[in-house]
Specification:
Elements: E1 2-5, H1 11-21, E2 26-31, E3 36-37, H2 43-46, E4 54-56, E5 62-64, H3 66-76, H4 87-105, H5 107-110, H6 115-133, H7 148-162, H8 169-179, H9 182-190
Parallel strand pairs: 1-2
Antiparallel strand pairs: 1-4, 2-3, 4-5
The protein binds glutathione.
The site of glutathione has 9 residues, from loops.
């Protein structure tokens, strides 16, 4: 399979999941501004939506959308899926929340919004992270087992750090725990991204 990605973008969650699963894949970098791939292809012809990630399976079938790709990868590597009754629905539930509530809340940071729009975006991200915190059981979102949802949340916590969105001590500890996983470190290194240092994240001040 082939993953179209951009360094540090949400496609990083797919790369982390592929590495965690031990699956083999080709990775093709996309310049999101010009929509040209590192091979000189017109990315709009590959994915008319123009966004990453896009996973192209070995039979040529393209799969877009984080929720679909991360559900698919969890199906290919059941160790990356929650276990127990209703687990598939629970995975889709949290992936959908991450995509349609949390991911979307970051958009003003990239779209030259005003300072007040960015402050509103930061508050929206904080509210949504607080909701997820209630799901943080034991080590990861689904308990002791790392899933594709953790890969997605990790990517957004990197953005929270980049945009100085304050996060709770619990979420910060989670972020650092995920950053220590060898597959996560390998994915960061492959995309030329630094491994986050402890304390590099603004912590929420209790009020
Ligand atoms: N609906 C898509 C959106 C993915 C998305 O927002 N990708 C961003 C990078 S994190 C992107 O490619 N932005 C550039 C663009 O859409 O032109 C999904 O959930 O997979």
């Amino acid at each position: 399979m082939k993953l179209y990605y951009s360094p540090g973008a949400c496609s990083l969650a797919s790369r982390i999941s592929i590495y965690e699963a031990g699956l083999s894949a080709e990775f093709v970098r996309v310049d999101l501004a010009s929509k040209i791939t590192e091979r000189g292809e017109d990315y709009m012809a590959v994915n008319p939506a123009g966004s990453v990630p896009l996973l192209v399976l070995d039979d040529g079938q393209p799969v877009s959308e984080n929720v679909a790709i991360l559900t698919l990868l969890a199906g290919m590597a059941p160790q990356l899926a929650p276990s127990g009754p209703f687990s598939q629905i629970r995975l889709i539930q949290i992936l959908s929340f991450l995509s349609t509530e949390l991911h979307i809340a970051f958009k003003p940071f990239w779209h030259s919004a005003s300072e007040s729009d960015k402050a509103a975006a930061s508050a929206a991200v904080v509210r949504r992270l607080t909701l997820i915190e209630n799901d943080l059981r034991e080590l990861y979102l689904f308990g002791p087992r790392f899933t594709t949802a953790d890969a997605y949340l990790f990517v957004m916590l990197r953005w929270a750090r980049e945009f100085a969105v304050p996060i709770s001590a619990e979420m910060k500890a989670y972020f650092e725990r995920v950053a220590e996983r060898p597959a996560v470190r390998a994915a960061l290194a492959e995309e030329g991204l630094p491994v986050p240092l402890p304390d590099a994240m603004p912590e929420m001040v209790a009020t």
